[in-house]
Amino acid sequence: MKDSFKALKTLETASGTYGYFDLSELERQGVAEVSRLPFSIRVMLESLLRNEDGYQVTREDIEALARWQPEPGEINVPLKLARVILQDFTGVPAVVDLAAMRDAVAERGGDPKRINPVVPADLVIDHSVQVDAFGTAYAFFYNVEKEYERNKERYLLLKWAQGALENFRVVPPGTGIVHQVNLEYLAKVVMTKEEGGLTLAFPDSLVGTDSHTTMVNGLGVLGWGVGGIEAEAVMLGQPYYMLAPKVVGFKLYGELPEGATATDLVLTITEILRKHGVVGKFVEFYGPGVAKLSLADRATIANMAPEYGATMGFFPVDEETLNYLRLTGRPEELIALVEAYTKANGLFRTPEAEERVRYSEYLELDLATVEPSLAGPKRPQDRVPLKEVKGSFLAHLTKPVKERGFGLTQDQLSKKVLVKRQDEEFELTHGSVVIAAITSCTNTSNPTVMLGAGLLAKKAVEAGLDTKPWVKSSLAPGSKVVTDYLEASGLLPFLEALRFHVVGYGCTTCIGNSGPLPEDIARAVEEGDLVVAAVLSGNRNFEGRINPHVKANYLASPMLVVAYALAGRMDIDFTSEPLGFDPNGKPVFLRDIWPSMEEIREAIGKTLDPELFKKEYSKVFEGDERWQALPAPKGERYRWDPESTYIQNPPFFEELGRRQVGDIRGARVLLVLGDSVTTDHISPAGAIPVKSPAGQYLLAKGVKPEDFNSYGSRRGNHEVMMRGTFANIRIKNLMLDGVEGGYAKKLPEGEVDFVYNVAMRYKAEGTPLLVIAGKEYGTGSSRDWAAKGTYLLGVKAVLAESFERIHRSNLVGMGVLPLEFLPGENRETLGLTGYEVYDILGLEDLFPRKRVEVVARREDGSEIRFQAIARLDTKVEVDYYQNGGILQTVLLNLLKEAKAQ
């Protein structure tokens, strides 16, 4: 610690004496008016102040960020974070890479035990459980058994890591959803560590390998999702490099009206912020309305930052933060420290402190205007007031597909399919709700809407209502505490009476693990080509994400999920049409069974207790008997199984120290892509088709199609993942007319084949590859395999009009060059078709954002010459690219240090 500003002070608290870096010292010394900075920028500034070393973090970095202005310009921030959080889908590749790094160090004469997370890392296994069984008390046990059966090899690796790696903890399956476990237990708000004989106190902060890491912003903790590659770098002690963002101040005032929930509020905020445009920005909430929101309400809003497009949706620490820490059973010493530290260092929200803050842009919302809403049928920002859902859904049926409709003709609208079961028969039609899922930490972390759903279920059962027989209903709490308080309130049996049984503790339906529809339902949907619907309390409803048979997907509060399960259809107006009829034939309307806020508050007061949290989290890392019985390997190096189809040693470090950086010559174009190509398009996801290269690889390994599992579950095997890169059935390679899916053309022969097969033919010839794309390349969730797969296919550069933040960083992290067209230029204006041969010149003496020369040679010998920006935004990124990636840079530095010693 250089501490050139002499900001290190001591703080006396009820729990002891701590050292801390006093931000106000910068104001006293005339560096900047720190008290006018947004709270989120202050947290970043504290990190720079505390980590100043003259190399990774300099005095100039501190001064630049301290002088942040509403129009910040280009301020590079080398942010050192307190910890990292991972979920199992993205965490498995990170552990695989750490194991491979241990091997690489050992093979070069180093000590493999030196490869450990430098900052604390927690991995929560929550992405693997699938809703196979539902609607019975047996569902949870069956789904957990299937989870272990499908994922045993991955879990053996993670259990090895739990024992072999220092600074690394694993929360076993069947415990909870990563962000809810983080909110309820892992997050400290203020961290401590021993340094130079002093106990330092500093703000909790993190990056996570999941977009919705932002949920913890509701607790006043700085954090957001990054790619797995960046997370690994942070774990290994590297700074996270970013540009200081604009900060949008979002003023909340008033109070939510009776009948409106936090879900309705977040869908309203998402709609407002998407329209305003907050990509790459922080959003910081302030105003008198913030004090009217519970911590769980704030967490719901923070969770959906990726849906409204912001890097983060931040609520500074205040009295409600302290109340929540107390409610969730955090130690009193920690709560005392959080209060004392945040108040001493200007990080505690008060009306007076808020008034001084300057923001880049301002928005506001009167909470009293929020009304019950859903979002859909294809995007989370497309809010529909509940009273308009029927009309909106019917309109979408005939709207053109390009306007996010379903493009049905008038003749198709009346299509119905009869389903016969042993004891009943019913008709399915367009708008039949076939999935109703209380799922996702967005809402299952919020006792108000969860107990509200329980109360609504109780009233429905008492009125003689039942869910429709074609609805696949499920309850997937984000932590076991939810089940505890639903049981304690006496409401769980009523949810179960409506077939909302606990199916697992994980993300389930929200990430596409909804499991198959019952065979007769799936058959009817296919037969009628029906536009059926899912209603879920999640955060994402993109087309094709929830279930392959379900085209219309709506986000809603848990209470409305139950309501739509009772109605069984989307084309219902709850204001004028009954949900059903009681045993006497009397109509029952939604308003008749909707619980009041007074009833919900009473249920919360009776059941929510810190002891519930203490009990469930006291053994959070131990796991059940299945986890404890796993025969995981031991030792400092992982014992790779060459026959495993789940876990393989990746080839990322084969060229370590031997990379030759120079111009890219003679490159061919693998794909030409349009605007808004997402990481879902690029990265392998979902089911593995039998006839695909990945399916053929698994068949050759003796894996039966029924045991293929998903791409997500096989992220630890690069052979599967590289075969599935750019293999999405909806991707459109514009070099192929009228062809949809993961195909490419081998040039100059002109043969069309799977992208993987074409890439391997180019690789055999030694031909480097290029991808050309439009605007916003790589939007969507952070997916490290979108970059890893690109690299393994032999793609040396991606030329696009613009990049999404995380994916651009991940490409750099894998040694792939992101190139950006100059403003006003693109593929069309330059006349590029993808059939040219490309040279990219000027790469030997790179510097940040250098303009390089691109030469595209046509078959007739003519040339198109233009410049593009090498999107290596910092000197560090230049080093990463030249070394072959972030992990290679870390390893090379580590080996140099070992040699020097």
Share in helix: 25-40%
In order across it, which strands form the biggest sheet?
26-29-30-31-34-33-32
Strand content: 15-25%
Determine the structural class based on helices, strands and strand pairing: alpha/beta
Q: How far apart are the first and last residues' alpha carbons, in Å?
A: 22 Å
Mean pLDDT: 95
Number of strands: 34
Low-confidence stretches: none
Largest sheet: 7 strands, mixed, barrel
How many helices? The count is 34
Q: What's the gyration radius in Å?
A: 27 Å
Overall geometric form: globular
Q: What is the compact description of this entry?
A:
By secondary structure, this protein is of the alpha/beta class.
Which features would summarize this protein structure in a list?
901 residues, alpha/beta, seven-stranded mixed beta barrel, 34 helices
How would you characterize the overall build of this protein?
It is a single chain. By secondary structure, the protein is α/β, with parallel strands linked by helices. 35% of the residues lie in helices and 18% in strands. The chain is built from 34 helices and 34 strands. Strands 26-29-30-31-34-33-32 form a 7-stranded mixed barrel. A hairpin with a 4-residue loop joins strand 27 and strand 28 (751-754). Helix 8 packs parallel to helix 9 (295-303). It is globular and about 85 Å long. The mean pLDDT is 95.
